[in-house]
Design goal:
single chain, five-stranded mixed sheet, about 30% helix, about 25% strand, globular
């Protein structure tokens, strides 16, 4: 008997496309199922969480996860990445700087500051390796079975290394990372680039269009009107004009 998305606590968004809202920081992980391959979007906040996501994704896909896209290098999205050994890992160009020794220490410290157990954070950091593939513009992945997805570097914005994932179909689905947040105000930490964030959302909207479903890094799925309103709020908040 084939397990359903709902039985594993996932939300099915479109055919072969879904996401899971993770406990703790309400972080989204996504899954796109192709023919004999599958793409995970973000990896959770620990090795254990990453391993659980991979096991669930492979049960839903009925084959192995072959690709992992990291939307940005914050601990709640990347510290489970080592659980996806053997997959092709993608990130925005420059993300490897965050995985270098100095960046890794700040990643660990940020995780602990935000409540992750210190030993759990250290274990994940020790196992962390940089993504193999660095996206500077757009990168099309063929997942087989007629399914292609587009990885697009639309940042900087929430960080200097923001990657979004567009899944064509009816409806189109856009995984936004933390460029868009629904369950709270978008967080602008020390690595944010506020002056470019509204423009990043303009590019995201150009990719997805009016009828797409937009999956935030935190919170419920939203529409283009929500993204546009958040873009205008960020522009006002940071004093950015068109």
């Amino acid at each position: 008997m084939t397990v359903t998305w709902e039985e594993l606590g996932w939300e099915r968004i479109a055919a072969g496309v879904g996401r899971c809202r993770l406990p703790g920081w309400d972080c989204t992980a996504g899954l796109v199922v192709g023919g004999g391959s599958a793409l995970m979007i973000d990896a959770g906040s620990s090795l254990a969480e990453g391993a659980r996501l991979r096991a669930q994704a492979e049960e839903l896909a009925d084959h192995r996860v072959t690709h992992l896209a990291l939307t940005h290098p914050h601990f709640d999205h990347v510290l489970g990445a080592a659980a996806f050994a053997g997959t092709d890992v993608f990130g925005a160009v420059g993300i490897d700087m965050v995985f270098a020794p100095g960046g890794r220490e700040e990643l660990r410290a940020d995780a602990v500051r935000n409540g992750l157990d210190a030993a759990v954070a250290a274990e994940a950091i020790d196992a962390l390796t940089p993504p193999r593939h660095h996206v500077s513009g757009e990168w099309t992945l063929d997942l087989g079975g007629g399914r292609q997805v587009l990885l697009a570097n639309v940042g900087p914005g929430h960080t200097a290394h923001d990657l979004v994932v567009l899944v064509p179909g009816s409806p189109e689905v856009v995984f936004c990372g933390d460029l868009v947040e629904e369950s709270g105000e978008p967080q602008a930490g020390p690595d944010a680039v506020p002056s470019h964030w509204p423009a990043a959302l303009d590019r995201l909207l150009d990719l997805g269009g009016e009828d797409a479903l937009y999956v935030p890094g935190h919170g419920a799925v939203v529409d283009a009107a929500f993204v546009r309103a958040q873009r205008d709020e960020l522009a006002a908040r940071f004093g950015v004009s068109r």
